[in-house]
Design brief:
alpha/beta; eight-stranded parallel beta barrel; homodimer; 11 helices; globular
Chain lengths: 272, 272
């Protein structure tokens, strides 16, 4: 396995990267990775919030980020979110709302701060597509005095893992450029390959990681292994979903992904 | 004002287009347009569901589609949605949930059918970005026996109205191709210009219509007039938001937009 890009971010120590980070949530995530020896994010795609909380309680010590889709939870309440936040605090992981914002700035601002979910009140990280243009990214948090700028980091989706996704190299390049310009609100990005940038302070999340399946699902999703994600695709954080949450022993499976993912990351940094 | 494309869709009568339509919701929308002499869609971007319902009751007779963002409503309940559905039935307009789906098929399926909102239970139209690839479009409705295929039409976002949006001509072209391939679930599209296709059975929605402002908002949104939208950009349906809902007399303003929009559409069809 070889690293496809000479991007310096890939071979810098997490300590160094932490100190060049420009977002408090990114700094916190580097701290958690180092302390927990983990680069594992689990996608808890259940329709029951109780099940999400149960999962978080059991695998919390192994992960650094729990990724959720708040809008697939049939029993969502802000009280249950408080419960999940408590679990996150005690086991020290971040909560990422994978909202994939993709609207005009005025609307995204309302979707982020308002409605039933009040995402900005509890999310440590939230995903957004650069599709609508750079103004959405800079305006979703409101003015520069807004609290949520420090408590929640935007994670830009530069590339998707699905077949025939329209996130081509030009698209990803433009999105990365805007992300760097807004590094006071953007903590990282989702990608299948390292973007053309040597800024090491932001964090690459790579979804579609599954050790058991090479082929993907029947609906266009494509999978890769933890080592492949980290060594060949530039992932700092691996996102594991169905490969873990559907396994019979989620704790043992989480430990396996943590070990594999962390070994690959250590190898990439120490043996460039 | 001249029409920028020789696209035959633009000059075909609504009756003819209705008969070539392949989606029951598109057929219904052509019927409503003809019966109400209206091509007006209003974006009811309030944070209060009660206000949305109040607006719908007053402007219902003027519009053919009410566009909402269910996730900005602070007081959302399924009971209030039932109330809105009743208003929609009595005043004969469709409800479009502007969700802008943009995830992998497995997730979008859950976001569309599940969660607190149960969008597929009440939406006549729902928007989606082609960004994740064609599999999302075909799989969001479930298998071919699913009820929601007949009761809800997907509206693909081919182009956005914001500054520097990444929905460039290649993007729009690819999205349009997929939309046509999935014409059993796609009722129309959102665009700022007519796509490269002569299929007249689907319907173009154009947002960012505002007679009072030429400049847009301060966050990247750009506006155009009803006549510009219909005659120069190929809109079948004009989407008016802040230009109407913030006006002091919403009924009079709705009547103005209905008249202007309908006159432009009639002119485009009869004087090509």
């Amino acid at each position: 396995q070889s690293i496809i890009s000479p991007n310096p971010r890939l071979h810098v120590s997490l300590d160094e990267r932490r100190s060049s980070s420009k977002h408090p949530v990114a700094s916190r995530l580097f701290d958690l990775m180092i302390a927990k020896k983990s680069n594992l994010c689990v996608a808890a795609d259940f329709s029951s919030f109780d099940e999400v909380i149960k999962l978080a309680e059991s695998i919390g010590p192994k992960i650094v980020v729990l990724k959720i889709h708040v809008d697939i939870l049939e029993d969502f309440t802000l009280a249950k979110m408080k419960q999940l936040k408590k679990v996150a605090k005690s086991h020290e992981f971040l909560i990422m709302e994978d909202r994939k914002f993709a609207d005009i700035a005025n609307t995204v601002h309302q979707q982020f701060h308002g409605g039933v979910y009040q995402i900005s009140e509890w999310a440590d990280l939230v995903t957004a597509h650069p599709l609508p243009g750079p103004e959405m990214i800079t305006h979703m948090f409101g003015d520069s005095s807004s609290d949520s700028r420090d408590t929640c980091g935007c994670v830009l989706i530069l590339e998707m893992s699905t077949k025939n996704a329209l996130t081509n190299p030009d698209y990803a390049k433009e999105g990365a450029k805007w992300g760097l310009m807004a590094s006071d609100v953007v903590a990282g990005f989702v990608a299948q390959s390292p973007p053309d940038s040597d800024f090491s302070g932001w964090i690459q999340f790579t979804p579609g990681v599954n050790s058991a399946s090479k082929t993907g699902d029947s609906k266009g999703q494509q999978y890769c292994s933890p080592a492949e994600a980290v060594l060949e695709r530039g992932a700092d954080i691996i996102i594991v979903g169905r490969g873990l949450i559907n396994s019979s022993d989620v704790v043992a499976t989480a430990e396996n992904y943590r070990t594999e993912g962390w070994a690959a990351l250590t190898q990439r940094i120490t043996n460039p």
